[in-house]
Amino acid sequence: MGEETQLQKTERLKRQLKGATLHYKEYTRHSESWDHDHCLVCWAKFMESGGVDILNEGYATDDDRDWVCASCFHDLKSAMGW
Ligand SMILES: [Zn+2]
């Protein structure tokens, strides 16, 4: 057992997202108590507003819970069937 490493987590999330339908949209937080998300692949940060390192839009699943940044989307879209 032991803790899942970030690499293992990323690989698991990529498997979950394979063939998923992703939509390009402005980032919106999905809960009052949660103000950001991360790209599931490279861990870039999404927020509704923020500095130069913060992404304001990207590719999200239908429920807005899983986010992928534009550069990872383009890198992976053929491998992932997006
Ligand atoms: Zn990314």
What does this entry look like structurally?
With 82 residues, the protein is an alpha+beta fold. It has one domain (21-80). The protein has helices at 6-17, 70-80; strands at residues 23-26, 36-38, 45-47, 54-55, 57-60, 67-68. It has a 3-stranded antiparallel beta sheet. It has a 3-stranded mixed beta sheet with strand order 2-3-4, with no helix packed on it. Strand 5 (57-60) and strand 6 (67-68) form a beta hairpin. The radius of gyration is 13 Å and the shape is globular. The termini are far apart. The protein binds zinc ion. The site of zinc ion has 8 residues, from helix 2.
Bound molecules: zinc ion
Total number of distinct structural domains: 1
Mean pLDDT: 89
What is the ordering of alpha helices and beta strands?
HEEEEEEH
Structural class: alpha+beta
Question: Biggest sheet, in brief?
Answer: 3 strands, antiparallel
- Spatial ordering of strands, largest sheet: 1-5-6
Distance between the termini: 32 Å
Question: How many DSSP-defined strands?
Answer: 6
Element layout with pairings:
Layout: H1 6-17, E1 23-26, E2 36-38, E3 45-47, E4 54-55, E5 57-60, E6 67-68, H2 70-80
Parallel strand pairs: 3-4
Antiparallel strand pairs: 1-5, 2-3, 5-6
Bound molecules: zinc ion.
Residues 39, 41-42, 44, 68-69, 71-72 line the site of zinc ion (ZN).
Question: What's a concise summary of this model?
Answer:
The chain is α+β, with helices and mostly antiparallel strands. The chain has helices at 6-17, 70-80; strands spanning 23-26, 36-38, 45-47, 54-55, 57-60, 67-68.
